[in-house]
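May I ask you to comment on the folded chain given beneath this request?
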Amino acid sequence: MIKLVQRMWPLLVLGLLVNTAYSVMWPLTTIYLHNDLHLSLVTSGWILAVYSGSNVLGGYLGGILGDRYSVNRIGLGLLVALLGDALVGFWWHDLWGYPVVLVLFGLLTGGMLTLITTMTAQLSQGSGRLFNLLYIFINLGLVVGTASIGVLFHGNLQPIFTLLVLCYGLAIGLWGRYARVLEKATTTRQPVRTAAGRPQRRLPRVTLVILLLSLGLMWGTYAQWMSNVSVYIQELGMSVRVYSELWVYNGILLIVVQGLMTRHSRTRWLPWQILAGMVAISGSFLLLSTVQHLGGLFAAMTLLTIGEAVYVPGVPAMINTYTVGHEGRYQGLVNAISSLGKALGPVAGGWVIGQTTGYLGLFRWCAGINLLVVGAVAVGNWWFQRRREK
């Protein structure tokens, strides 16, 4: 484990840099489109859907390309393109320019994050602990990115894109120095086998489908926090700074919880870890639908964060454990389905708010959807255990 971590540290830092850039962009998107560019929530949701759709495509292509071609060249190309996109965004972020820059950002970021996850899966040799470690660094990037919003954003996106340029410049330097070493490590690893010397068992198709569907639905509801909740908080009379502080708190708590998970995570617990995470996420939306003050928002964010910390690394870790040898394909699916949920979430949320029951009704719908997912995951766990016993 220690040797793997020592070998993996450049990948962890790369995850931090890429997610810092990602995390400084997405919380601002709905606010900037709705408040500064004066678009409706539904129109903003459609732009976010196209952005997240490009993220789906980037995630899937990143997984396929990572399995077939040189990781070194693909990663360098993606990082250079992200740097170019940030430079364009620095100068061109009006009503026409910002959506274009955003869609390209989604495509390239999806590919890069999938590449990082795929390489982690290949280095992990079936261990779920490295996924928890990667998510600690990714969420450290979340803390840095969201904390930067309150300092850098005052109606002008140029300071935000300056931070992006800095992150990608450092990432390119890191990649150029260590990418060959990481690529060699992933191509020379040995297949993981059980104690009896047999290849590890495959995940049943029913369980795999349920896990992927749960991932899409969970991110569809989680995306409300990333989009419509930002406007809801302002309608309650609170500032963008409060929204930024909620995400800083989210990132710090994630690091703490996932640090504990890294020490105590076990493969045999993954099915129940995933189930417990979904229960907590559902509870966060139930609470959010009943409170309208700062303390209640932080309490709801606490449940959301604990659920995310337990559930989000658990799904790719479980899929990776039982799909060894096809990491790129399956981790690409994980990122693509996640991005699809993020794409559809803001559109559906904007429609519910505008046409039916408002923000509180939306939060109740999200809680109900997550409770249905809890039931589906429980069925998937039962099927998985039944197949293992056979």
